[in-house]
Amino acid sequence: MSRRLKISVGIPTYNRPKYLRQALYSIASQTRLPDEVIVLDDNPKTDENYKVVLEFQKDFPFIKYLRNEVNLGAFQSYRKLLSILEGDVIRLMGDDDIFFPQAIETSEKAFLDFPEVDVVCSRTIFIDRKLNPIVQYPGFWGSYYLEYFRLFNDTVMDGQDFIRESLICSLNLCVAFPFIKKKKIDLNGLKFREFDFTVNFHWFLWMSVLRKGGKIFLSSKNLFGFRIDENEQLSLEKAIIGIKEKLIFLSEEFLEYLNVKFSKRERAQAIEKVILNAFLIRDMLIKNNRKDLLERLNSIILSFAEKIRKDASYLLYINSRKTREPFSVVIVTYNNQHTIQECLESVLKTLKEGDEIIVVDNASEDKTQDILKRFETSSKFVKCIFNKENIFYAKAANVGARASRNKYVVFLNPDTVILTPDWLEVFYETLKKEDVGAVGPVSDKAMSGNNVGIYSSLNWEYTPVWMRYFFDGVEEDQKLLSGFCIATKKDVLEKLGYFDEKLILGMDDFDFCLRLSEMGMKMKVVPSVFVRHVWGVSFKSNIDSWKINELSIINFAKKLSDKYGYGNVPLPEKLFTNSVFHFYPYEHMKLTRFRFLFDFSGTKKTKEFFVSRAKVLSSKPEICIVTVNYNSSEDLRELAESVLKSRYPKINMVVVDNSESEDEYERVREIKKIFGDNFHIIRTQNEGFAAGCNIGIRYAREVLRTEYIWLLNPDTVVVEDTTFELLKTVLYTDVPVATCKIKIYGTNYAQYDGVRASEQPFEEKDYGLFRANFLSGANIFLRSEVFDRVGMLREDFFLYFEDNDFFERLKVNRIYPIYTPYTFIYHKVRGNYGILEKPINLYYFTRNILFFFSEQVLNGKFKKGAFFEVLDKLRAIYFTVLSLSFDKSARAVIHGIFDFFDGRMGKNAKIPYELERSRENVFEELASIDIPKPGQKVDLRTYMNIMKINLILSPNMELFERYIQGLCAFLFRDLLQEIDYLYV
User: Does the predicted TM-score (pTM) go above 0.85?
Assistant: First the structure.
């Protein structure tokens, strides 16, 4: 006979008989029934809960009912149940939660299979009032989702390790109460230093058990449903109590009680999540004018922040007692009257005997020199050098450095303020190491590794204190330090030859760091030092500064070219960062003359390479434009005329006419008369944009034998040099796919810039050539051979996202398309709302964004969290079209979601009819469906179909959220496992 444990379940309840009935039903439906269930009624005035218990006691006599003589509240009721439950294993549960059928059987098996386990926990499904799973809120559910897949895999884990994981992510990963061996619970010790945890009592309970060295079993199954009831469990008052309790959990004293080790940085990351949540709650309180609760929350935050300030002050005190070698702070100024005084005052507060400030003024024309003279007269630390003319930054910085008398030198911009008093002591501890060549702080405005946002998500008045305390002793290796504040050694400067004075104003920090790397020296960012930075004050005070900066960039490009060879310079993201995020370096290296400086292909580029490519370019090889026409002959005519006006002589145009209209075909033939014999028309049935492109591509390759193909929308217009520049980009980078800037027709505003695309115009911002983040199907220039490697455009999308899919397949084949800002095309955007005014287009967009992202997630290219971004986008679209009363567009979104759910790809010939259907037709369809009763369980397809019809009849956001809920149940079916139903 197999061993059996005594399992007890305790349920405190108060005025929720409907929920209690569901909870008891879920217990009565277990594959292994419990041995004891005690329902503890906290309402002594009514019998409603007792009547519910009576419904079950006849068939399930192990269910018992007790009633408190006075109302104790949930927390005290839980404590009471812990004392009276008699099982070997006990499980507390809220009266509004449910067990899934195998919860007790699975948990008991884990205890029996692993005797060392004291706690058994499973994945939990969050449910709403109707018992439907909630997965569409990324900030809430998404966090648990990621942790479940990472940790809950039918494994035994050390209890203290699990506590660490739970506190680091600031989530009670057991969600509510897990199954616990009763003998492991210290009933007399369920408080911390006389403090009772109430909102997070369940979290405290299992941590208090596991802190003594126990083990926990983490089941991969969904065994428990935790109900989210916004009116009760997520009340603002409870949320505030929860914030206070979580901050106690993360206090040094409580972590010591748990015997759990945290680094300061880990603790900071966990606390940040709590503080950020507190800020969200604070916004809600302000919105709801809850001044009483707002005051309480602010008091909690302020009290905690002051504790951090006190702890940080202790570190400052310790550092102030340390002996360090003197520093020279070099500041180069030019017309900085508005910032230099505060900068100098902040530095002077931090200096010790032997330190000095050397200010090199580049012939300022405002009141800067007057301010400097006052400081020089009043402070023994300040020495000023007044240049007779503006010699700009690099040369002036060298003047100051050479005049310095100390071993350690800091180059500091005049638009900064030192907010960490012991900054030089911190710098010294890092700089004194032989292999460290330079050190930098963090700032609110700085490049890449110096940006405080990399280390902290908080942006508040306590940021400098926060960074000083939690990042004490942290050093981060970087390839690039931002020049607003760089500390180094004078002997390092001498070995390097100081700053390169050809880099007159700008790029000096890039070059300095690059040369340090070549010397084998390390560069460090110390995030415990915070320096406020205004950024660009000197540039704003002199219009010539930007021209000088451009000259510096050119000189730096020459230097890189001499070192690596033109076209062979490693990409900026490889030279200057530790990640693929490339816009910081590119943004500061806007190359024109040296646009092909970098190696985008891995091809070794010699002089002969460029000569041979120049010959190809001068020969003007034939290029074939492929465009798909769908009743766009008026636009097509303007495109053809712009091609004729371009300076490129050998262009064929292949027009695939999808219009299925004789009149439209005749209009296209009239355009051929203008363009001539190089204009080719292919009539075809409309099978979509991708299918049309593929027909044109095959014609260009097989009939015209064209080596270069240019996919263009018919509603685009090219400028004179577009063809030539795109061809040159492909030839000189040796990357077979290129694209360029797309401007909105008739404006200087961008629609696509290689980084983003929008039908709403945005300001252009050029970085030079770089690898595009994605492609726009309106404009892709490529070698014909690419299709042999990658394949043709996906035709089952029909319209939209075939370009995104093509881009991902290019990357799989190690082809990274190049974006050039040195030419552009125009693209017409009709109407004020773009695609939102085109219901059929919006249908395909909605359907295909879901298909595209689901495929990328399935293939492991995108994280599952990407779905949340898509859902937010669909919410925004639906809300907008409702607000604008675009009824057909609203229907288009609904049908697009349903057809994705239904697996319908390719052309949907019925969609024009569906968008035009009358309400009477829809009512007829509704009448033909076997409508379930409210609260009835139905399969997902029935649920989605009912929601779809209701939304068509009565479009509104509340119903749309329920529709999205069904979509989420489908998207996250691997997480929800066997939950292939919903309740209506």
Answer: yes
